[in-house]
Amino acid sequence: MTDVRLQRLIETAPALRVLTDAAELEHYGRDWTRRWQPAPLAIALPATVEEVQAIVRWANAERVALVPSGGRTGLSGGAVAANGELVLSLERMNRVLAFDAIDRVLTVQAGVVLEAVHNAAREHGLAYPVDYAARGSCSIGGNIATNAGGIRVIRYGNTREWIAGLKVVTGTGEVLELNRGLIKNSSGYDLRHLMIGSEGTLGIVVEAMLRLTEPPPPTQVMLLALPSFEALMQVFSIFRSRMTLEAFEFFTDRALRHVLAHGAQRPFDDEHPYYVVTEFAAADEHQQAVALEAFEACLTEGLVVDGAISQSDAQAAQLWRLREGITESLAPHKPYKNDVSVRISSMPAFLAETQALIEAGYPGVDVVWFGHIGDGNLHINVVPPEGMPQDVFVAQCEQVTDLLSGALARHGGSISAEHGIGLVKKPYLLDTRSEAEVALMRGIKRVLDPNGIMNPGKVFDA
């Protein structure tokens, strides 16, 4: 370690673990995006809040930018360090700190992996209901930084709804304890919610108080094959009116082909253009009968052409794999990803317009659609044609995304539903937020991060 600045950091925090090996810089300097070559100064792995504070104060003194890092499962470049930043990884701060049985609050460090939170809640007979396919690797701090949604938003909402309090180190090194687990707190601005979704640009979440709830009732999983997107929206309306839905996820035939090629089992003999995986409460025979009646009604009306229902946990997991395996199956192809949202009622009109844009912009290209119908969130993954240079492919995709962003503005939607803005979506922010809103965001950042060291260049330029 020859960099004088790093020597001063170690003098400031002698027990701090700092990595400078080339392989470590490569590993920690990127997230699931692969468009930027990582080039961090070093990797710092603090074990305490005090070490995080020391790093931030050092960064201010040395004018070194910081990139907070969790599980690095992000898809918008929010955790990329490509310009000599210090990556501040929270993976060593991975302990469950406390459980309050009266308030049903679990306090954890930011580096705790989501699956560990699920397990800890289960040990107390409760549940943390926010869930994603990347549960085994994504961290709570990263979930909070992007206000991640996942597969059960229709029932439980986004991460924001389950954060009872936060401990945050600001861009000046000050520790803020926000809300402290209160249910009612009308004492001024709720800075907790300001931090949620801020992508590490205002401060570093070091601890979180998570609300827990009753475990979900016994459920069953149903896989549906549908002839059209219009039918999909009608099926959603019918199912939602008759059943207690835990999740309602759709994907296309192209998505299914990728998952099958990745090792999943084919669900039906015939191919169909659209599929739905839905999970619903099935605690008794009445609820199970209602679900079958809803399925049969949709089948009679031609809204559904085939279906399967789980009879065991193993079968449920097999059906869920068809949806949750999509991102992993696409990863080797390095697809260009769009993560957009509109109001549920606007989705049919938006999709019709968007499909026309996509077909014109990507003729003959493999475009994979899937998403969360219950909360208006669509994922559009474009697989690069074989042999096309990455820079040419990205340039083509950005032209189409610019058109897509305009369509979102016309339909009152958002260019980022749950992945964050990061670097990837930054050029399109003004189609989602007004200039006045962005100006206010910049002003807030200047207050909490006056020297601009906190994940600079992400979300917007200073």
Describe it for me?
With 462 residues, the chain is α+β, with helices and mostly antiparallel strands. It has four domains: 4-92, Uridine Diphospho-n-acetylenolpyruvylglucosamine Reductase, domain 2, CATH 3.30.43; 96-211, Uridine Diphospho-n-acetylenolpyruvylglucosamine Reductase, domain 3; 219-327, 2-Layer Sandwich (Alpha-Beta Plaits), CATH 3.30.70.2190; 334-419 and 428-437, Alpha-Beta Plaits (2-Layer Sandwich). 35% of the residues lie in helices and 20% in strands. It contains 15 helices and 16 strands. The strands form three sheets. A seven-stranded antiparallel β-sheet has the order 13-10-12-11-15-16-14, with helices on both faces. Helix 1 packs antiparallel against helix 3 (49-62) and helix 13 runs antiparallel to helix 14. The radius of gyration is 23 Å and the shape is globular. The protein starts with a helix and ends in a 14-residue tail after the last helix.
Q: Which bin fits the share of residues in helices? A: 25-40%
Assign an overall shape: globular
Biggest sheet statistics: 7 strands, antiparallel
Distance linking N and C termini: 31 Å
Task: Kindly estimate the percentage of residues that lie in beta strands according to DSSP.
Answer: 15-25%
What labels would you give this structure?
seven-stranded antiparallel beta sheet; 15 helices; single chain; 462 residues; 35% helix; Alpha-Beta Plaits; 20% strand; Oxidoreductase; Uridine Diphospho-n-acetylenolpyruvylglucosamine Reductase, domain 3; alpha+beta; oxidoreductase; flavoprotein; Uridine Diphospho-n-acetylenolpyruvylglucosamine Reductase, domain 2
